Amino acid sequence: MPPRVFIVIGPAGSGKTTIAQRTAQQHEAAYLDKDRVSGRFVEFALTATGHDPTDRESNDYYRANLLPLEYETLMDVAGINLRLGRSVVLDAPFGAYFDDPDYLTRAAEDFQWPSSEITVIRVRVPQDLLRTRLTRRGLERDQWKLAHWDDYWSVYGRLECAWSGVDFQDFNNEAPLPVD
Q: What is the value of pTM for the model shown?
């Protein structure tokens, strides 16, 4: 059986990580979290260049220079696992690439993915619950989002993925999340 790709998307606080980890366990797949794969390097690079290491949503330097590297690294590591015959679960927002229908096709080609079934799991959560979750978890990286909630939600809360050639599954995640 060829390896499969599961991509779990949704805004911060939606429960992507919980759903992605469960999916990886169910399918005995490699779990690849963008923040774990490259987050420390991104924070270092932002700090070294005089930027706030926790603000990625409003930071043009991050979006132009570091975000593409994060996703290229994630897709490269996924390709290595897929070529080894191992299914993968990718845990990342991917919002910057939603409007490009051919993004995954190009990434699969660029990073030499073998032919694989791709399932995108869209984690959905209502705006008020999402804001409550971000407030409760109290992470520094969420402070900009909360301080600029209307701006954040107007962009990131309404993104729709236009990728072609994938199976979309919606997951309504209104249940309380476990405490980490």
A: 0.87
Backbone angles phi, psi at 7, to 5 degrees: -115, 120
- The CA distance from 150 to 14, in Å, is 17
In 10 A of CB 101, how many CB atoms? 13
Type of residue numbered 126: P
| SS3 (DSSP) at 170 | strand
Q: How far apart are CA 165 and CA 103, in angstroms?
A: 10
Whether 64 contacts 126, CB under 8 Å = no
- Whether 160 shows a pLDDT value over 90: the answer reads no
Instruction: State the Cα–Cα distance between residues 166 and 173, nearest whole angstrom.
Output: 21
pLDDT at 11: 82
Please say whether the beta carbons of 150 and 101 come within 8 A.
Answer: no
Q: Which two tokens stand for residue 78?
A: 């996924």
Question: Beta-carbon neighbour count of residue 52 at 10 Å?
Answer: 16
Return d(Cα 156, Cα 171) in angstroms, integer.
17
| SS3 state of residue 101 | coil
